[in-house]
Design a protein that fits this description.
single chain; alpha/beta; Rossmann fold; 6 strands
Length: about 220
Amino acid sequence: MRIVIAEDDALLREGLSLLLRAEGLDVVATTDAPTTFLAAVDEFRPDVAIVDVRMPPTHTDEGIVAAVEARRRRPDLAVLVLSAYVEQAFATDLLAGGAVRLGYLLKERVGRVEEFLTALHRVAEGGTAIDPEVVGQLFARSRPDSTLSRLSARERDVLALMAEGLGNGAIAQRLFVTDGAVHKHIRSIFGKLGLAPDDRADRRVTAVLRYLEDAQRRSW
């Protein structure tokens, strides 16, 4: 796995690099600015980019803008975004292009090495990894008249875990239910959100995007 890191905090950038190399992963470049990050993506053609949301010069949304541009240039690039806080609009901006090979984690998650590495491998393999705190806050900000009001409490729990990137088996373990029960809840979620029975993976992504977009709209 070839990785580029874009993080302006030198301590975190070097710490990530050391951690990943110790795991036998190939960190091909580390950068501290959006322009050098995009140049590294073009030059090294990494499999995964780890990108900080807030980067120079204004420390607002440069990292997200660069990540979106990197995905435009290389649609097969997996991107794992790191943020110090839950930044709802930034999460949905990035996810608007599709949730395949995409992760959004709070920086505190990096300290939980096993969780961080699990998320990294998940996005590299084509999955999604959204921080549970991001998921929780997005749900909390939704109003009762949102599309999500059609879902039962258990269905909302299942959708939240889907958003984190968990598969049916992992969701069943987390909720202490059977795989069959999870499958039933997901079918119900698709029905209530009006998602046609096409490709299952696409419907999972669409369901996650639906609630993220809804939560952002309700917060305006």
